[in-house]
Write the structure tokens for this entry.
Amino acid sequence: MTNVRLLSMHGAERRLGVGHGSLAQLAKAGRVRVIPWGKRLKIPITEVERLAREGVPESRRRPRVRRAPAACAFDPAALRALRVEDL
């Protein structure tokens, strides 16, 4: 039986310097070899070394679009003129 050293996904991401969830996305796409370990996924150290040598492939996830805040729908001057009794 061969001993295979395994890392957690978090440990592999830290070692490779990639963001949280990057390797999980690549594993789901079948681009990185992982080993199921109960409910978790482990990545062999040989796979981490391969990724360090070849570089981590780009994920195909679309970048998240950040929306600008909604425009102000009230008149600031009118708010300043309000009194507590008016409410």
The CA atoms of residues 57 and 84 lie 60 Å apart. The longest strand covers residues 40-44. The helical segments are 9-16, 22-28, 45-54, 76-81. Residues 6-54 form one domain.
